[in-house]
Amino acid sequence: MIKKVVSVIVLALVIAACSSSDGGGSKPTDNFDRQTMLLNWADNIIIPVFQDLNAELSALVEAKNTFVTTANQTNLEALRSAWLNAYKVWQYAEMFNIGKAEAIYFSAYMNIYPASVTEIESNIANGSYDLNQSNNQDATGFPALDYLLYGVANDEATILDIYTTNTNAESYKTYLSDVVDHMKSLNESVLNDWTSSYRDIFVNSTGNTVTSATNKIVNDFIYYFEKGLRANKVGIPSGVFSSGVLYPEKVEGYHNQEISKELALAALKASQDFFNGKHYNGSTSDNSLSSYLDYLKTITGSEDLSALINSQMNAARTQLNTLDNNFANQINADNTKMTMTYDELQKVVVLLKLDMVQAMNISVDYVDADGD
Amino acid sequence: MKKFLSIAAVATVLLTSCSSDDDNEKNNINTPSTYSFLRNGESTVNFGGQTTRIAMATELVSALSVNTNTKASLQAMFNHAEGDQDFTHADLNASNKNVRSKVAASNDFFATNTTLSNTIKQDFDGWITDQADNVFPSWNVTASAGVAGNLQQLGSTTVRYFNAKGLELNQAVAKGLIGGLMADQMLNNYLSIGVLDAGSNVQNNDNDVVEEGKTYTTMEHKWDEAYGYLYGAEENPESPVLDADRFLNTYLRQVNDDDDFSGIADEVYEALKLGRAAIVAKNYKVRDAQVAVIRENISKVIAVRAVHYLQGAKSDLEATTIDYAHAFHELSEGFGFLYSLQFTRKPGTGMPYINNAQVNSYINTLLAGNGFWDVSVETLDTISAEIATAFGFTVEQAAN
């Protein structure tokens, strides 16, 4: 009897050994210290980003208050510059769609573009609106301000008229004010959640399951790079997803007309800094995806993925730098340069979404629809 | 002691059988006699999208020969939008699929090369536009160097229509689609390891996890979609008889009819069947070996036909009385197959046998000056020889 049991066990072991050998050999154990990476992300990148965004949004609120009190060209310029400063910091924050940010659809209320002019105008005309209502996602945030500060009339003088002599001037000012306050309040709730409780949950979620902090952030990061940067900023306006039909009006900062490149470059820098674990606004770096890949390289002898990814991100930056400051102009003049930029960004996506996650044994939690 | 020995013996036997060779691995694969695969008694084979696109391409190519069509109507057939009344078949009009979006759109070749993909799509747009703008208005003009119009074949009632360079544009589109749509989607997309193994496909296939509401796993379906680009127009695709469309399917038959390449059609069919059966048996090594067989042979079909037509044109041009209508027809078919070479796939590499830059240089040579009116037989021989060498056959084998 015992003999039978033993041989059955042996049999089972042998069969198990057999079937696993199909998978291409056993991998060395991954003992990378995920917690030091999570600590670096939380304390040196994510929380400082939301704090800086909070400071910039406070400045935006102040500039807005000044403009609402005294609507003149000087105060309009100051308000615009506060908007741009905050918008640039936003490029660092958008990827951290986790915790409170994920729960309240933070990024959807902050940066869905193009903003809907129809909805904004109708909100202003009606005077009754709930900016937390999902229908208003494209009537709030940075893109709504892009319209209100640059696109609400055809020239500078007339834009100011909207807030001064226009019969609806008060309604415009109220809406402008509400949108800015709404953005500030959303960011406060995300930041407060991080500093009060979420930070500890995050840094202690060291496992490798689909809901672990590393796995979620890696997915957020790739998703941001693929959708927020590659698709939204470059691919959609240049017709990659519309059989070549061009949508210059869908570039980020369309009404401003000169910042779509600046914002895309900021987003690329934010992505690369995060990948390399560079402290926000600092010069030192600690554990992040690049050091994780370097560690995996030493235990598996695989290729130097972190170098490949950095060099491909640099190639994407070189291509981005060839574009007009206003992507809408670039699309109208020579869209090929846009799609060439898209292609360089897509090469980064392939490295991140296939090679990197495979090395880290992390599964991608979202899929693209294929057509057929 | 005896016990350990017997365990050791059993283990040794099992381990030996475990490190199986290819034959043993094939043995656990149940390859059916026809391309029929069932799960719980229901078919798991589905490639409706491919059948639809072949049908759309067929109508488009026919429409290019009807001079009352407009540029807009032709473009709409190429780049159909769901619900638009672009085709004679209601099913096609209702479909949300179209041809253009799948031209030069494979995962392996174009996922990070949208710029080239756009250029290639624009080549097709350009041929369609040229037909509507320049050839249709010259329908009754006699073609000559630099002048679009018609030419009648010698001793025949067949009239052909050429652009100013002697190119028959419906041939450029039809033969270009064999590579740009069919071969590219088949070899570089649906048979791509990146597509077959994308996401959780392997895990799901290993555990027989089927797509929601479907009978097939995603990996099975991807393979079937590759099958569909070759056999999707067959009346009974399970047992293909070939000559079912005017694209890849028909030219596989034509190459197979050449004694130098006979058996190629069977080889492709068997590899598609075995690869699909290997997916059912979760044997990815055998599957991947079949991918290589299919890539090599389908690529070869395109190359053989390119050389065949260039050589056909050469003999026309060398005749005492030159039949320009026939020569340019051959050249136009050859042009389309030549264009398609950039979508072939050399097994074991991520590259075509002949790349886009090389193809463009051939095409620019053929279209230089007054195009086919100026082309020399030396040029045709040079290009033919280069293609034949790249694919490992001889010009003579392809020419007859």
TrEMBL record, chain A:
Localization (cell): Cell envelope
This protein's UniProt keywords: Signal
InterPro entries noted in UniProt: Imelysin-like (IPR018976), Imelysin-like_IPPA (IPR034984), Imelysin_sf (IPR038352)
Keyword Signal: yes
Cleaved signal peptide residues: 1-23
Cellular component terms per the entry's GO annotation: cell envelope
UniProt domain Imelysin-like: residue ranges: 47-345
Pfam families the record matches: Peptidase_M75
Principal cellular location given in the protein's record: other
Protein name as catalogued: Imelysin family protein
Species whose genome carries this gene: Aestuariibaculum sediminum
From TrEMBL, chain B:
Stored InterPro entries: DUF4856
Keywords: Signal
Signal peptide: 1-22
Signal in keyword set: yes
Source organism superkingdom: Bacteria
Record protein name field: DUF4856 domain-containing protein
Classification lineage: Bacteria, Pseudomonadati, Bacteroidota, Flavobacteriia, Flavobacteriales
